[in-house]
Design a protein that fits this description.
alpha+beta; seven-stranded mixed sheet
């Protein structure tokens, strides 16, 4: 794990905050990194597990593999369930270049 700092952004009357710790994954799940973000809407706070993958996510893409994406989803849900924090949602995003 390493610190990535704290970032905030506002969208459609909500505020997203990334928590400081990013987890780097070195397994075969195609999950490169994951982190938690807070989504604030009024007085409500939701925790989002953000999962970064190296897989093609667009079904029309040449390298898209539905079975591998299902494995990423299953691994993300398992990580969500194993978290000591209550996670409200999982967001899977493509790897940053």
């Amino acid at each position: 794990m390493h610190c990535i700092g704290c970032t905030g952004r506002m969208t459609d009357s909500s505020i997203h905050w990334a928590i400081h710790v990013m987890i780097e994954h070195n397994d075969r799940t195609h999950i490169l990194r994951s982190w938690h973000e807070w989504e604030l809407r009024g007085r409500e706070r939701r925790i989002v597990l953000v999962v970064e993958t190296d897989l093609e996510m667009r079904p029309e893409g040449d390298n898209f593999d539905a079975d591998l994406m299902d494995q990423v989803r299953a691994a993300a849900v398992a990580e969500m369930r194993a978290s000591p924090s209550a996670i409200h949602m999982v967001r899977i995003i493509p790897a940053r270049d």
